[in-house]
Amino acid sequence: MKAILKFGFVILLALLTAFVLTACSQKDTVEKVKLAEVTRSIFYAPQYVALEKGFFEEEGLDVELTTTWGGDKTMTTLLSDGADIALVGSETSIYVDAQGATDPVINFAQLTQTDGTFLVSREKIDDFDWEMLKGSTFLGQRKGGMPQMVGEFVLKKNDIDPQTDLELIQNIDFGNIPNAFASGTGDFVQLFEPTASVFEKEGKGHIVASFGEESGQVPYTTFMAKQSYMKKNPETIEKFVRALHKAQAWVEEEDTEEIAKVVAPYFEDSDVETLAVVVERYRSQGSFATDMKLTKDGWENLQAIMEEAGELPKKVDYEKLVNTSVVEKVTK
């Protein structure tokens, strides 16, 4: 009898051990998500907050971030499965659709809702007027990308023809634009933060205007994935959006210096004071899309800007490339 009881105890212990190990395994299981960002900028502060504050981990996601430097490279990475999700301008999904993609790229959550660039002059200007760009050399962004299209849209809004009223340079690789300006190319340059503020602090340039304030709301950078990935991984997308929504709310409510401290590891060349100034600059002009929903009006404004720049291949229905169901579920 003792032998039978002993044997039964051993079996019970083994079963309990197996149960505990299985439960721990399920709890510790995390899903890897490869995320490609178009550039490294304080403009994307909520994304870095989600990473640093552990919001992705809380959702069971191990997000691996890669900076791919440019819309074309980012989209190539996504389409070739080098990334599961991309943070890039919504215009890239329209370009992919125009090429007849059988697996379209879907915009499912919006991170920023204004342009994130600033006009930087080489010389200090106390009383800036857009008319000052006439006859100057303007170092713009990559042709066909949102920064360049918004830049041209703002110039035209201020009665400046970018093709005839100034010398427009847009053949420099995205990642090399700051270095080109620092080396002496251009009287004015269109830059993201924190580069613009760093240049100002170092005396290399002076911020004179915000393209975000001039252009109004537009789905500037959104998270997107191939339709096939979204259908195969609906829970992953939902967890991803939930983590980002927490981060957006945290950035909206937290002290700017605290936000700067959290994202500082992603910007080793910038001090916390500069980062805090930049965060406040973006937050005050409403750049962070706190509700994360890409609206139909925003989509139409995007295509209007593309058409004005001569870069819209064809109009694409909102419902074809935008899916707001996950955001609506998470933010309900």
TrEMBL record:
Species of provenance: Lederbergia galactosidilytica
GO cellular component: a single term: periplasmic space
UniProt-listed Gene3D superfamilies: Periplasmic binding protein-like II (3.40.190.10)
Keyword Signal attached: yes
Primary localization class, coarse: periplasm
Family: Belongs to the bacterial solute-binding protein SsuA/TauA family.
Keywords, sorted A to Z: Signal
Protein name stated in the entry: ABC transporter substrate-binding protein
Matching Pfam families: NMT1_2
UniProt-annotated location(s): Periplasm
Annotated signal peptide: 1-23
Superkingdom of the source species: Bacteria
